Amino acid sequence: MRNILYLLFIMVVTVHSQEKMTTVEATLLKEKVKAQAAETKTITSDFIQYKHLDFLTNDIITKGDLSFKTPNMVKWSYVDPFVYSVIFKDENLYINDEGQKSDVNLSSSKLFKQLNKLIVNSVKGDMFDANEFEISYFKYKGNSDVHFIPINKKISKYIKAFHIQFNSKGDVVEIKMIEPSDDYTRIVFSNRILNKTLSDAVFAH
Amino acid sequence: MRYLLISICICLVGCASYTKKNNFKEVAVTNDVVYNPYFSDASKDYVYKAKIEVYNKTFGGIFIVKKIAEANHRVVFTTEMGSKIFDFSFQGDDFKVNYILEEMDKKILLNILEKDFRVLVREEEHVFNKSVKENTTLLETEIASKKYFYAFKNDQLNSISRVKKGKEKVQFIFSDISAITAKNIQILHHNIKLTIKLKSIN
């Protein structure tokens, strides 16, 4: 009897943490995020990245900041425990690895272009494309948690799912990229500021 | 006749053993096991920032080693943003590729990486010969039928060299060592343009 009670308790907790949204709630969220993304010209934010590998005792934690400017410039800068930045601009990746600069042209690889587009879109949270993803909507600790499962087999070979958490304003607070092996990268944003003036020089290599 | 003499001379120099060439003196083997302690703590996650230089191209990433059990290590390389590039398991003499990015799935490359990382994580091996010079001891062993020399200075493992015909082919150099952790590791290939530099970040 006690075991059944425990089991029920666990089930209630699980259901509570992953409650599915109604169709109306999901539509409202989608509209809110899309409207927010359309108005977003720039984003700056701090982030903490947790790399989870199942066999490790602790997640690998790296910290840095993110800058985004329309239409499609993104810069990820890591400052701790190493200094490294990568700029996604036009069809190139510009890397600065502790002062050592290099670049990668993505124009010849359709797949990398697609992955690149996903990264840019996930920063804004606007990935609501039913042709590209199987999308499901959940409520999680006062936030919205949306699961995007890539339909394209070439993409799903690299990423099994994106889980994006939105706050009540429809702004992205967390991105989780899950690999086919179930290892994942979780990025938690803080101090996220929208539409602050951001010079192009930020994205210069 | 003169050519024969020259050939003999070249052979004598070329075939001279690695230890003799470096003025080491052979002594009796006292402990027949050599230990590499740098990936021996199963409670520790070994995380390194990596720079790989291959044919004048450099790329970086995160290099991760975890001891899962005795003679069982997981070796993973990811980009800075967390995407996995490769994921290997070394268990005893077995080698398993859990994952490798399609673009890197080349047999010749896999062979090199397998050989390098097998040596890096191998904790103990049988010693065949021992030689000394001042405060440095060289212990000769064999891993996967290749000859290796472990160099200890004041009982601290400083380098491992793969040697063929008296010449160093690959060197593993450990520095900035505290207790049983090497904060800096370099894997230098002398026969191909490949260098792997690892710097501990945890």
Report on the architecture of this protein.
The complex is a heterodimer of chains A (205) and B (202). By secondary structure, chain A is of the alpha+beta class. Chain A has one domain (19-203): Lipoprotein localisation LolA/LolB/LppX (outer membrane lipoprotein receptor (LolB), chain A, Clam). Chain A has helices at residues 2-17, 23-39, 110-124, 153-156, and strands at residues 19-20, 42-52, 60-69, 73-80, 84-89, 92-97, 100-105, 133-140, 143-150, 161-166, 172-178, 184-194. Chain A has a twelve-stranded antiparallel beta sheet with strand order 1-8-9-10-11-12-2-3-4-5-6-7. In chain A, a hairpin with a 5-residue loop joins strand 11 (172-178) and strand 12. The longest helix of chain A is centred in the N-terminal third of the chain and has 17 residues, at 23-39. The model of chain A has no long low-confidence stretch (mean pLDDT 89). By secondary structure, chain B is an alpha+beta fold. Chain B has one domain (18-200): outer membrane lipoprotein receptor (LolB), chain A (Clam), CATH 2.50.20. Helices cover 16% and strands 55% of the residues of chain B. Chain B is built from three helices and 15 strands. In chain B, the strands form two sheets. A 13-stranded antiparallel beta sheet of chain B has the order 1-9-10-11-12-13-14-15-3-4-5-6-7. Chain B has a two-stranded antiparallel sheet with strand order 2-8. Chain B is globular. The model of chain B is unreliable at 9-15 (pLDDT under 50). The interface between A and B is medium-sized, with 25 and 27 residues.
